[in-house]
Write a structure and sequence with these properties.
It is a single chain. With about 525 residues, the protein is an alpha/beta fold. Helix content is about 50%, strand content about 15%.
């Protein structure tokens, strides 16, 4: 195994927002609190220590114990849950949807990033405790985003009726999905583990939240991962003052809208707030709460509340109030002694919209850390890259650029078109000096001729390149096949593949290699040779 780190920007897959954040550009600084470095964590610990109450810790620990009832909990996870009662214990949190069989590869990268960061902070701040936390997005209702995973280029899909919070979904119907998947896995030792993990997770648990907890716990319990489900009455009770504030004052809409007006001057906006950023959750539905004509209405239903009635409902039925993408981060930071949220580029981008909102409601804004991203390269693939003289950074070039570069490098024909274009431009510069002493029509004629001749050279360059690609067809095909294999659909493989493909081949050593290789605070992209 060999791990190599390269800058995120060199992959071409990360947004201007993320790259500016990693470089601490002045334009992004107003939208975050502490930066993810040791100084930032020192400051964050001080802020959170002052604000997070002992009573919240006690409620959190009891809720977690109840959620883990009937689960095989490792000693390390039990210890971490108990540590959360202590004032000097903090969480490092990542979150993810309840994707079928974990969904895309980066599910693993998120959680291992959180585990490794917690361990690193434990070494840097030995008088404190740090607990890695996985927040299950049990209240999401976008079933189409989570009902499948890709295995060896094919979709393994769960088809069922949509409706309500996905964590409450029955696992009925997953027997058929298991039969299809198991048939593709074969009979190896690693295949046997994957079959057991899927069948015990989904066929021995009645809802999607418990099934996902089982799978994540089985994969990561030895590292002390703690898994939390926000769809919990006691945890919602802790959050109820913020729910009431939202219903009465529309605070998030006002604050986030003001932030967006400044953020959008330089960056793409990820999400826009509603006037009220809460859903009303019932058995088979999760619908927006709307305030119209002095009445609170649950969208697409006949349910309505007066102000007094809905505030009473918060007290009596807090589970019914489900925060949307704008308010979920606040819910997380209210109920957890959290220092840092690890997420992908899209997630971190919407967190940038929230800092003013957090300040308004007096909750510390966490450190935001771009999770580790990984490109796995097998020994066989690395040999092919070496034979084709493709570097790790060249691998991420646009396919047309990569092919053009390698075809030119491999060509016997030495025609330096850039030099010839530069030579032409110099010649026309001299002509323009003369032209300026004549009339406008002559200047225009010189400019037109320059454009024509340079265009002609560029067209010749393209024709030569096309001819060389035809002549070097074998090279072109080998490069194309290899890049498509490593970057399926010209995208990062972590967004396409499921962990089971690599587990099938490498077994537990795959997770061990990730655990050893991922360095969250280095803020780099990882290439992992296996």
């Amino acid at each position: 195994m060999k791990a190599t780190q390269i800058p995120f920007k060199n992959t071409g897959f990360f947004s201007k927002t993320m790259l500016d954040y990693l470089e601490k550009k002045e334009s992004i600084q107003p939208f975050y609190n502490n930066f993810p470095d040791i100084t930032g964590f020192h400051n964050q610990i001080e802020e959170k220590e002052k604000s997070y109450r002992l009573q919240s810790r006690l409620v959190l620990v009891e809720a977690l114990k109840n959620q883990y009832h009937n689960f095989d909990v490792s000693e390390k996870t039990q210890d971490n849950i108990a540590l959360l009662k202590l004032k000097n214990t903090f969480t490092i949190t990542t979150g993810h949807q309840l994707n079928l069989f974990t969904g895309p590869l980066y599910f693993l990268y998120k959680i291992i990033s959180a585990i490794n960061l917690a361990e690193e902070l434990g070494q840097k701040f030995p008088e404190k405790n740090f607990v890695p936390m996985y927040w299950m997005a049990t209240e999401d209702h976008d079933f189409d985003e989570i009902n499948y995973f890709n295995f060896e280029g094919k979709k393994v899909k769960w088809t069922r009726e949509d409706g309500g919070a996905v964590g409450r979904f029955s696992t009925d119907g997953l027997e058929e999905v298991f039969a299809v998947f198991a048939n593709q896995l074969g009979g190896s030792k690693n295949a046997k583990y994957l079959k057991e993990l899927f069948s015990k997770g989904y066929l021995e648990h009645t809802n999607l939240a418990d099934a996902t907890r089982f799978i994540a716990n089985d994969l990561f319990k030895e590292y002390g991962l703690v898994i939390i489900d926000g769809d919990d009455k006691d945890l919602k009770n802790l959050f109820s003052p913020f729910i009431k504030n939202e219903l009465e004052n529309e605070t998030s809409f006002k604050e986030v809208s003001e932030t967006i007006s400044k953020l959008e001057e330089n960056y793409k906006i990820q999400v826009n707030p509603r006037e009220i950023n809460l859903f009303y959750l019932s058995k088979n539905s999760r619908e927006r709460i709307i305030f119209e004509d002095g009445v609170y209405k649950v969208n697409n239903t006949n349910t309505t509340f007066s102000k007094a009635e809905i505030l009473k409902e918060v007290d009596e039925n807090p589970l019914a109030f489900s925060p949307n993408v704008i308010m979920r981060p606040l819910y997380q930071e209210v109920i957890l002694p959290n220092l840092c949220y690890l997420g992908g580029g899209g997630e971190i981008a919407y967190w940038f919209e929230l800092k003013n909102y957090f300040e308004k409601v007096n909750v510390p804004f966490p450190i935001l850390l771009l999770r580790n991203s990984v490109q796995v390269v097998s020994e066989k693939q690395q040999k092919k890259l070496d034979n084709l003289t493709i570097s790790h950074e060249e691998l991420f070039l646009n396919q047309h650029e990569l092919l053009s570069k390698k075809v030119i490098e491999n060509s016997d024909i030495e025609v330096e078109f850039l030099e010839k274009i530069q030579y032409l431009e110099n010649q026309f510069s001299e002509l323009k000096v003369v032209a300026e002493k004549t009339d406008v029509s002559f200047i225009n004629a010189v400019n037109a001729q320059e454009r024509k001749q340079i265009k002609g050279l560029e067209n010749l360059q393209k024709r030569l390149l096309r001819a060389e690609k035809r002549r070097q067809n074998d090279l072109v095909e080998r490069i194309t096949a290899l890049q498509n294999e490593l970057l399926p659909n010209q995208s990062l493989e972590e967004r396409q593949r499921n962990f089971s493909e690599y587990y099938l081949e490498y077994g537990v050593t795959f997770i061990a290699a990730l655990k050893e290789s991922l360095k969250p605070l280095e803020l780099k992209f990882t290439l992992l040779e296996l």
